[in-house]
Amino acid sequence: MNEILEQSLLYDFYGELLTAHQKQIYEQFILEDLSLAEIAQTAGISRQGVHDIVKRCHKALRGYEEKLHLMEKFLAIKSKVYKIEELEDIQRIKKIANEIIEEL
Amino acid sequence: MNEILEQSLLYDFYGELLTAHQKQIYEQFILEDLSLAEIAQTAGISRQGVHDIVKRCHKALRGYEEKLHLMEKFLAIKSKVYKIEELEDIQRIKKIANEIIEEL
Least CB-CB distance to B97: which of A16, A67, A84? Predict the structure, then answer.
């Protein structure tokens, strides 16, 4: 998975655990793709300050996933549900549904 | 959902975000069903101390769910996958698979 995609997925899952200020800065960086300099200017802090916040947010979000593995679980289930969508063989569909239930 | 079930589900999802000490106390209360007095004795703290820790853990776990809603999402997906397991009509199965993907 590329890093920006991973970061925005992690943010989708655990972003609500960041503070309002962290979210504001991190969203501009990850979702709006602004540069550190641009974010620094709007937020009225230094470029280095923005850099530190982004780094801290990234580390926190990764930390949540390392502890909870919920994103990993969701993605595994999602790929199995996509398989169900493609299949026509009802026995194979039931087998996959069973696997999902065991994972949940 | 009854309260003990809800608490142990929440613990399953977010328990890893508690400290080691909190986990130890909370597990004895929720999973091993020990009384506050029993836990207090083993841990060498007061009954009131155990009560406070349990209350704080419960509040923290609920707080995570209120922010992230991941347990709610998982349970909704699980009930849909159970439906897939029961159905024989492939068109209805695909419709439900689609709904799951939209929720994920």
Answer: A84
